[in-house]
Amino acid sequence: MSRRLLWLPLAGFVVLLLVVAGGLWRPADPTVRSALIGQELPDFTLPPLVPGKPGVASATMRGQGPRLLNIFASWCVPCIAEAPQLMRLRAAGVAIDAIAIRDTGPAVQSFLRRLGDPYVRIGDDRASAVQLSLGSSGVPETFLIDGKGRVIRQYVGDIRPDQVDAIVADVKALR
Amino acid sequence: MRALAIPALLLAAGATAQTVAPAALADTQLADPAQEASAKALMETLRCVVCQGQSIADSDATMAGDMRALVRQRIRAGETPDTVKAWLIGRYGSYITYDPPLGAATWPLWAAPVVLIALGIWIARGSFRRRR
Q1: Are residues B96 and B127 in the same domain?
Q2: Which residue of A has its CA nearest to B95?
Q3: Best of A137, A139, A141, A154 to disrupt the B interface by mutation (most B CBs within 10 Å)?
Q4: Domain span at residue B38?
Q5: B72 plus B49 within the same structural domain
């Protein structure tokens, strides 16, 4: 019995080694994901930011078919990289609403003039309050919302060219 | 000093690029000292989602400022720190707090010391008995 117990520390060490090796092999993913997936959008109302474009409210996101909710800012560099993909999504018939984080009207207007305007609505989120209520941790991030106003998916970071087709398929699947 | 100047300039450029001033309560204490104390205590247990090793009380990230403003607003409106924490956990999961609730992933942390002490006592008892 005690002979066998002698191997216990070595066995413990091997287990520890495997745990550490596992961490090296597949490092932890530091992406912060929203816990709202599968749940209703929280209630919010954001005023418009740009003339001629309405603000965003959770109520306006229900009963209008599936759509994307893009969280962006004119000061955000990856948002510039993402802009052509959003234009492609719009061209494919995907409705996109936006929440502008800590931004100003003129800055957003010049951003849209330079990079194209894929948005149906733009809400003004001055203190990231709605962003925090969505469980979003940065810009850009995009939520896929179904026709009933439920959060289906979250795309963290800028949407890459190779993701566009899959997102169009995701939106079509909800129709 | 010069080595510091360039990063400082870059930081300043980043700060001015964000076109709106930080949220009102991000860096302003609440008028009621008791409320401010409980808000501060809560902030120290909340993770900044941008700079993930820091609490929102320690972080200079704008997003952390917005989170501080949110905590102060809710505490000022009379919410308890526990409800604010639960609200954030509902949005971000337990990852948002450094003091996560007891759950499937955290109970081994609490059980392990008890198990290890029991194991130690058992081993010690065995060795003392042999010595006699």
Answers
A1: no
A2: A32
A3: A137
A4: 22-101
A5: yes
| B131, part of any domain | yes
> What are the strands of the beta sheet with A67-72, ordered from one edge?
A121-125, A96-101, A67-72, A141-145, A151-156
Q: Give the residue ranges of DSSP H helices in B18-106.
A: 33-43, 62-76, 81-92
How many domains is chain B built from?
A: 2
Proportion of chain B above pLDDT 90, given as a percent: 58
Q: Are residues B32 and B87 in the same domain?
A: yes
Give contacts of A133 with chain B, Cβ < 8 Å.
91
Measured between beta carbons, the chain B residues lying within 8 angstroms of A36 are: 90-91
What value does the CA radius of gyration of chain B take, rounded to a whole number of Å? 22
In a domain, A125, yes or no: yes
Residues of chain B that touch chain A, judged by Cβ-Cβ distance less than 8 Å: 17-20, 23-24, 49-50, 52, 62-63, 66-67, 69-70, 88-93, 95
Q: Are B49 and A32 inside 8 Å of each other by CB?
A: yes
CB contact under 8 A, B52 and A102: no
Most confident of B7-11, B94-98, B112-116: B112-116
Domain membership flag for residue A24: no
Number of domains comprising chain A = 1
How far does chain A reach from its first CA to its final CA, in angstroms? Answer: 66
Name the residue range of residue A136's domain: 45-173
Residue B58 sits at the vertex; the CA angle it makes with B57 and B63, to the nearest 5 degrees, is 70
pLDDT digits (tens, 9 = 90+) for A119-173: 999 999 998 999 999 999 999 999 999 999 999 999 999 999 999 999 999 999 9
Specify which residues B20 forms β-bridges with: none
